[in-house]
Amino acid sequence: MKSVYFYIHLVSILALCGINGGGSEKTLSRVVPTVYGSVQGYVRHLGPSSHDLTLSPVEVFLGVPYAAPPTGQARFSPSMSPLPWDGTRRCLEPPPACPQPMVGSAGDRQEASGRGGRMQSPITGRPALLAALRPLLQYQSEDCLYLNIYTPQQRSESLAVMVYIHGESFTWGSGSLYDGSILASYGQVVLVTINYRLGPLGFLNLQSGKGSDGPSGNQGLMDQLAALEWIHHNIHQFGGDPQRVTLVGHSTGAVAVNYLLVSPVVAPGMFQRVILMSGSALSSWASVADPTSTAQQLAEHHHCAQGDTNTRWPEVLSCLQDVSAQDLVNTPLRNYQFLSTFGPSVDGVVIPHDFNERLTR
């Protein structure tokens, strides 16, 4: 049995292997039925690797919808099931990234000087990575709740499933930055990467447990839960075993995985194992201590509030739903350097108040 540490290392080194396209030959895959409709991807022929490994072909399905678009009145709301479709949906191109500020922008440089709060300043010191990421993140849309599936084309039995939740920041990123073809082929696993809402669209908290029934944040975590439910009900059609699902997260992705591990709203059987890399729910930057203060700043900047947002959240929410997504994610906000402006917060629903105790059980 291959060591799990090898897989962890492989996930790390493959993080950007899809950027150059690999010169792979593409042919259409089989048509796969799902609960909501049929999908068709393509077959990637990998050929010999640089380490003289012969890698078998994989089927790739890019941009499979796992939830309805969180647009209009659904902005800031928990994710909903996708609408079914007729015919066969072609899943050949990466889906749009969820709205986010462009890495390496002026906002990054402002934050690096301590006047911003998006955890992006470290990447400004990696120009090669920055140059590779920017083209992949330019295509953005609020209609972004999609997942990508990589599965060996030839298999004789149901395979273990790995679900990778991207990290680095709760403000930027995309599941499409990670190409799972080689890991799926070499490890004989089904690999899934997902998008989830980021920044204010994914973690706006207007109540913070003060008795309000307004949005409590953690929409991004709810998206991840919706993706897990989709995987649980559909992954067997792609050759995966829904009883052998491992969640893998790096940095803020590891924090998200850790919160899902202790969340009371996660139904039993959604996953069986977790791998946390460079982060956990106990990290000092894992949650936002005063999320309503950030929400207040956001609302005031867009002239949606002049007082306590907790007492007038319906009006504030309606106003913010009329602001463009790009204006929201690029709002300049005060925060401490290297700490999340927006991120998970204890809401008593997705993240229980006793999550520390749950972690030690």
From TrEMBL:
Q: Where is the Carboxylesterase type B domain?
A: 30-355
Q: Which residues form the signal peptide?
A: 1-24
Q: Does the keyword Signal apply?
A: yes
Give its E.C. classification number: 3.1.1.-
Establish whether keyword Hydrolase is in the entry. Answer: yes
Question: What family, per the record?
Answer: Belongs to the type-B carboxylesterase/lipase family.
Q: What is this protein called?
A: Carboxylic ester hydrolase
